[in-house]
Design a protein that fits this description.
Strand content: 25-35%
Radius of gyration: 15 Å
Number of domains: 1
Shape: elongated
Largest sheet: 4 strands, mixed
Strand order of the largest sheet: 1-2-6-5
């Protein structure tokens, strides 16, 4: 497969979820979006057999039109610095 034109956007969002949401809603002209310093926050508690209150699910904003790729960190408190959306 030969790609003649690939549009890439890279943006440092300084952990601001409003900026991430705006980028994902408006950047339809790009094939790849790199988001540097994405915000991470608690999305919800998921059922757990080990914890009665549930386990914390942590994530970053996403948009249904984009696929997000992120490598999980081996250190739970060390969140990713870059996300890739295609």
């Amino acid at each position: 497969m030969i790609v003649n034109k690939l549009n890439v956007s890279s943006q440092n969002v300084h952990k601001n979820s409003l900026i991430v949401n705006s980028i994902l809603k408006t950047c339809n002209d790009f094939d790849i979006i790199l988001i540097q310093e994405p915000p991470w926050f608690i999305i919800q508690l998921i059922p757990s057999s080990a914890l009665s209150e549930g386990e914390v699910l942590v994530g970053t904003p996403h948009h249904p039109n984009w696929l997000s790729f992120a490598r999980p960190s081996p250190i739970q408190s060390d969140y990713l610095r870059v996300m890739y959306h295609k």
